[in-house]
Amino acid sequence: MRQGDLQVMNADVPWHLFDPIAYVEHNYRDMWAEDAEILRIVRDHFVGHFRNRDVGRITGIDVGAGANLYPALSMLPWCDEITLLEHSSANVRYLESQVDSYDTNWDQFWNALCEHETYGSLGLDPRDRFRRVVKVRQGSIFDLSRHEGQWSVGTMFFVAESMTDLYEEFTWGVERFMRTLAPGAPFAAAFMAHSKGLQVDGHSFPACDVGESEVRASLEPFVHDFKVQRLQDAACVRDGYAGMILAHGWRRNAEAGNPAV
């Protein structure tokens, strides 16, 4: 999104005007095929990491949670605590309204996770566990530098490319997310490919035009053994983007070119 010839920075956007109810109604009232595929991949990634592993206390973070609960649901069986970090005051209110007993539209996303025997055999009451482990925190992705290495697992869905027009801010957002994770922590991050911005209830929100190569380049300094993939044959949920990109892997133990970190 541009205002004349000026690019729109994250700080310029009236995020308090974002309407989470309209957003959920359009995007998450029903589970789209793209989200089902993302859930399958992320679920299998986390199962592969955590199953039969004694890792002590596990903390998770969903950076820029917005009005989307399914990243937190994907971490739910494994975490003793999950932080939903969100900047928009409107989205914070929505998330807080979901903690005690989230809306029934999210059941289909949990059920999709439970198609894997490991999730399905855990015998969890997801709403009870969600209530006990999820904490909503208002804050900016750019303030995360104070929390380097704090979380054991992390997700960031449709955030870094959907908060600014500036490529520099996109890369900073990815970096802040990755640096919050402890060495070896599994992660999953999703991006809108070549997005032109978002319209929600009459208000425009920015986007940075990125594809697989930009996503890969932003992640490479911080991760190892990771995969970036474009979801195939995806029917677009809305106009103005070219599909979805999913990245998953692990936070590296030492950053490229700086083994002391």
UniProtKB/TrEMBL annotation:
Keywords: Methyltransferase, S-adenosyl-L-methionine, Transferase
Name of this protein: Methyltransferase
Any one GO biological process: methylation
Gene3D superfamilies found in the cross-reference section: Vaccinia Virus protein VP39 (3.40.50.150)
Presence of keyword Transmembrane: no
InterPro entries xref list: NNMT_TEMT_trans (IPR000940), SAM-dependent_MTases_sf (IPR029063)
Superkingdom assignment: Bacteria
Gene Ontology MF terms: methyltransferase activity
Organism annotation: Streptomyces diastatochromogenes
Cross-referenced Pfam families: NNMT_PNMT_TEMT (PF01234)
